[in-house]
Specification:
This is Cysteine dioxygenase. The chain is α+β, with helices and mostly antiparallel strands. It has 3 helices and 10 strands, in the order H-H-E-E-E-E-E-E-E-E-E-H-E.
Length: about 170
C-alpha cells in the first residue's frame, strides 16, 4: 500500500528517510533508534491527517495506515481522551512521535505466569521514542483532555499483517 504523499504534508520526507535507514540493514534496536532520530527532526503536525481522520471514534482508538511496504509502515493513531490499548507487544521494532495529547505508557516484563510493571512514561507532544522486541510489552492511554494523535513507524507491513500487535497479554500483574 503506497498512499500518495502529496496530500500528507511531511510524509514524503519520512517515507524517503525511513526507506534509507531500513536499507542499511541495521539490527532492530539500531533501526528503531535511527528512525527515532529522523522522526525527531521531521515530526509532522496534525494536518498530516484530514479533519475527518482527526475526529477519531467514540468506541476506540483509530489507526490510519499512511504508508506500507514490505519492510516498514507509517501509521497515525487517533485517541480520544481516555482511550487506550490492552497490554500487548509488537511484531517488529517501533518508533513513535506524539503530535497531540499525552500518551501514558505503562511497561511490563513477562515473568511466565505473570507480568511485572517495570516503568511508566507520559509521552508529550514533540516527544519521540523507539523500541524493539523483546522488551516491548506495554499499554498506552491518552490521559489528556484533548484529542491525541501519534505517528508510529513499524518495521513490518501492517497493511498485510492487519496489525502491529503480536500478542495480547491477559496475565495477572504483580
Amino acid at each position: 500500500m503506497n498512499l500518495t504523499t502529496a496530500t500528507r504534508p511531511g510524509l514524503d520526507v519520512l517515507v524517503s528517510g525511513v526507506s534509507g535507514i531500513v536499507a542499511r540493514g541495521l539490527g532492530a534496536r539500531e533501526t528503531a533508534f535511527a528512525v527515532a532520530d529522523l522522526l525527531r527532526g521531521h515530526l509532522p503536525g496534525p494536518d498530516l491527517l484530514t479533519p475527518a481522520e482527526r475526529e477519531g471514534s467514540p468506541d476506540r482508538y483509530v489507526t490510519h495506515i499512511l504508508h506500507a511496504e514490505d519492510d516498514f509502515s507509517i501509521v497515525a493513531v487517533v485517541w480520544r481522551p481516555g482511550q487506550g490499548t490492552p497490554i500487548h507487544d509488537h511484531v517488529s521494532w517501533c518508533t513513535f512521535g506524539i503530535i497531540s495529547g499525552i500518551e501514558h505508557e505503562t511497561l511490563y516484563r513477562d515473568m511466565g505466569d505473570h507480568l511485572v510493571e517495570v516503568g511508566r512514561a507520559d509521552n508529550r507532544p514533540g516527544e519521540v521514542s523507539g523500541f524493539a522486541p523483546p522488551g516491548d510489552i506495554h499499554k498506552v492511554r491518552n490521559t489528556s483532555a484533548e484529542m491525541g494523535i501519534s505517528l508510529h513507524v513499524y518495521g513490518a507491513d501492517v497493511a498485510r499483517l492487519g496489525s502491529s500487535v503480536r500478542r495480547l497479554y491477559d496475565l495477572p500483574v504483580r
